[in-house]
Amino acid sequence: MDEVQVVVAHSERATLRVGDVFLKVDADQARIDAEVEAMALAPVPTPEVLWRKPPVLAIAAVPGTTLGRLGGPSTGLPAAWAAAGAAIRKLHEAPLPPGVGRAGRGVGELAAELDAECALLVTNGLLPADLVTRNRQVAEAALRPWAPVFTHGDLQIAHVFVEDDQVTGIIDWSEAGRGDALYDLATFTLGHEEHLDDVLAGYGGDIDLEVIRGWWAVRSLLAVRWLTEHGFDPFLPGCEVDVLRSRM
């Protein structure tokens, strides 16, 4: 029998790997439904769905490797990062999917959530007030109207697989929906700012870098407390807190 590897596990969901099969266990059936639908609609390589038996979704592993991880070293030549940018552009140019994902919340709703989270970060002593205040200012650039596109919604670097400078698979589509294109670009380059130019070279177009930086601040501010409460460490080198510190 193949060894069972715990890929990620917390109170909301867990992902296990057994050989070349990933088993995603999620009590939220709507989230699994959204993931399967998004993978079927996305015009980029996605994992093959092997079977579903709620609350479990079984998908096949995709070939290739990631370009790194948050808090770790990045790999790959500029061409590989550009290929990822081109794949993200292809997704964003696809017909809009049903539903609104993480990247599609209204500006007012997101601003209110961010303000509440910033207050908790300071009140609970997780982050110093000056760090939170500065990044809340940076985050304001992201809080503007945007034209919705087909977004992945959680396009972490660990979710994009590349081989021979070609994207071979994009995984974890549970947050997909209509949202802001620059949120996906910011999520993919979070903690790896040195590769932003390569990604944008593949993506093409005129991109507002202040908005990208704004989304880095938004995502990091909203993640710190959740990560801490679910057994992860956003204070590790290169992770969310270091991203926030880089804006000081």
TrEMBL record:
Ranges where the Aminoglycoside phosphotransferase domain occurs: 20-209
Gene Ontology MF, one: transferase activity
Keyword entries, A-Z: Transferase
Pfam family, one: APH
Domain of life assignment: Bacteria
SUPFAM superfamilies: Protein kinase-like (PK-like)
EC number(s) on file: 2.7.-.-
Presence of the UniProt keyword Transferase in the record: yes
InterPro entries: AGP_Transferase, Aminoglycoside_PTrfase, Kinase-like_dom_sf
Record's protein name: Aminoglycoside phosphotransferase family protein
Protein source organism: Streptomyces pakalii
